[in-house]
């Protein structure tokens, strides 16, 4: 076990051996929710009764027939832009305050079928954009490593919830970094899979051609277990890829000797200079990869700002199109940050949008060529440790380029994993990017790094301060 | 692409989008318009007229290992 809180893989082994009860595990998570979530606001809505009923059902089934898989009896959370049948799904917005879906989103359905226990719906930035906001019906999530600080977003509640052990894993969505950002600032793992690998059916859109669904958990190994349940073709999602689903854990623990890693130094050293702590975390990670036997090379791409411009213009227009009706009729019901983002769509012409789409094809071809002969590329996940939550500029899209957006533009799989802690005691992270549908390799390398670097034994101090349940 | 937008042009674009904004909101948009103009310039590269935009989903064979 990792301290008081098991990883999904550890819990699955204990449950299979009948040494850990799903009911006890669920109660322990709920106990931490009750003690910590008044500070964290990781949940917008708890489903406690349902969770306990699901845990009891899982326990009965496991006692009779053994677990159906590694997620059987595992407590999770779903970002509140994921439809859940009979459970309010608000997108953290006044616009959908009374919305109760009639069906589960595909990812909710798949995780339920895998036997997970739903602890609740996790906090998000409004419609997965713009936050953190203080003018919404619910407060923004806080970072468990220091609650004065930002979680990043928009999958903020899932990031905070996993880091604090309120859940063992959860669903995030990622249009420009909304899985990898909170994973980075909350010190957990989060993978944005290849575009089309995980169905988006039943999940509120942010920008259609940039949207991805993926798992967030304490480790890359746990992300592999969750991705196994989530991946696969779904005709309800027009972008769903029709490909066989491999074993995402097959390469875990296989070592990385001889694998080839490209480092996009200019992204985080020239195009935008990350903090000294983040730079040190990246350099230390590169040294760790070399120690593990990987070959490390330099990779050059177009400037980070080109990728950011491409993704941002596409995002502004697609978001404005998705929410055009409400922007016209209920603009005042959005929070200030999303309201402002929705206005931007009016300023981007149709020709600008098509030029951005043409640029995307060029940039993706550039990444494909640069990755020839490589297994993954590496860069920063965030520019620094988590900033204070009340210091974030409203128009950061024009001020700080995103290290994550390039891989939404390309649609390539990318994971953020913890690479240490900065001077302020907050987590640092690296980002590893693989080739399309090569998640097993991305997860293998991320797992090898986590195990060699040994940052997974440290949890936020607020957990250590809890009395035993 | 100009880095500034006139009041008249902004009013036209907002009306076309069906958005009713306050004067303060309009002023804010004018203030950040240069950022959008810079992004729009960045996606314009020398390319032939035959260069098609990316597919919106799926990957071509050449993307795959």
Walk me through what this model shows.
The complex is a heterodimer of chains A (469) and B (65). Chain A is an alpha/beta fold and 469 residues long. Chain A is built from 16 helices and 11 strands. An 11-stranded mixed β-sheet of chain A has the order 1-3-2-4-6-5-10-11-9-7-8, with helices on both faces. In chain A, helix 2 (22-40) runs antiparallel to helix 3 (48-65) and helix 10 (304-322) packs across helix 13. Chain A is globular and about 60 Å long. With 65 residues, chain B is an all-alpha fold. Chain B has helices at 7-17, 23-42. The termini of chain B are far apart. The chains are: A alpha/beta (469), B mainly alpha (65).
Question: Topology of this protein?
Answer:
The complex is a heterodimer of chains A (469) and B (65).
Chain A: H1 8-16, H2 22-40, E1 43-46, H3 48-65, E2 75-79, H4 106-113, E3 117-122, H5 156-163, E4 169-174, H6 180-186, E5 189-192, E6 212-217, H7 220-230, E7 260-263, H8 265-271, H9 276-291, E8 295-298, H10 304-322, H11 324-329, H12 336-344, H13 350-370, E9 376-380, H14 405-410, E10 414-421, E11 427-434, H15 439-453, H16 461-464
Parallel strand pairs in A: 2-3, 2-4, 7-8, 7-9
Antiparallel strand pairs in A: 1-3, 4-6, 5-6, 5-10, 9-11, 10-11
Helix pairs in contact in A: 2-3, 5-6, 7-15, 10-12, 10-13
Chain B: H1 7-17, H2 23-42
What is the end-to-end distance of chain B?
39 Å
According to DSSP, the number of beta strands of chain A is: 11
The H/E string of chain A reads HHEHEHEHEHEEHEHHEHHHHEHEEHH
Shape of chain A: globular
Task: Briefly summarize what is shown.
Chain A is an alpha/beta fold and 469 residues long. Chain A contains 16 helices and eleven strands.
Descriptive key words:
heterodimer; A: 469 residues; alpha/beta; Amidase signature (AS) enzymes; 13% strand; B: mainly alpha
